[in-house]
Amino acid sequence: MRYGDVAAVDGLSLRVETGTITAILGPNGAGKTTTIETCEGFRRPHQGTVRVLGLDPVADATELRPRVGVMLQSGGAWLGVRAEEMLRHMASLHARPLDTDALIERLGIGSFARTAYRRLSGGEKQRLSLAMAMVGRPELLFLDEPSAGLDPQSRRATWDLLVELREQGVTTVLTTHFMDEAEELSDAVYIVDSGRVIAAGTPRELTGADARNTLHIVAPAGLDTHALAACLPPATTADEPVPGQYVVTGDISPGLVTQVTTWFGEHDVLVESVLVERRSLEDRFLDLTGKALR
Fold this sequence. Notes:
A hairpin with a 2-residue loop joins β10 (237-242) and β11 (245-250). The chain is of the alpha/beta class. The strands form three sheets. Strands 4-5-6-3-7-8 form a six-stranded mixed β-sheet, with helices on both faces. It has two domains: 2-207, P-loop containing nucleotide triphosphate hydrolases (Rossmann fold); 212-278, Alpha-Beta Plaits (2-Layer Sandwich). It has eleven helices and twelve strands. It is found in: Cell membrane. Residues 1-219 form the ABC transporter domain. This is ABC transporter ATP-binding protein. One of its GO terms (cellular component) is plasma membrane.
């Protein structure tokens, strides 16, 4: 997809497996929303091929729409319509909609059910948009920033609902700026920058790639860190940056943790605490893009 001389989506290639949650991550302007909108059929790609459930999202839109739920970044409802009316209208357009009353209760829509859409807060609009995307019992869900603007309770309810839908066989593709959301929910993650996929894998694969994790130990000050490092695998370091606080860095495995604690025990040192600190998906994201989350 091009906008003038700018390739917003530049030869990007990805595949989503049935019954999974796939997250597309990237800084603002990376091409995430354009990619999603192309898959949804709102934009026709200038080059390349897009297939959704085996169909062309533009040419086969009539056949595809009943099988796909879409949550837009904004809009999707008439300004004057009440929240509950809009959701029930959406449900009436589908052959086998979800239980609307249950969905209203699950996402906390009842508190603003009779409020006009234009008067809803950002978080309330998000909850309604999510319900509208789900109510038709789709095979595939496209969610653009589904938990943006939500309070912690609504965010957790959204996560739980997406996990339940996955267990029922629903496939979800989402964009998000919340790294914990992607790490918690996703079976697969694609990191996009400048319109291209720069990394892909499971959250565990991405956080484990080239990772050097850290073991923090609190114990009496002044121990011989050189002797500790000498009994550990190569490329593992041991330091005491602050008196009484020891840091072991390397490939932290259960065996390495055992080696470290055994060393302390052999030297008759009582350890106060041991903490394993692993790289997060956000760490990996920043390594790859070199950009803060904006």
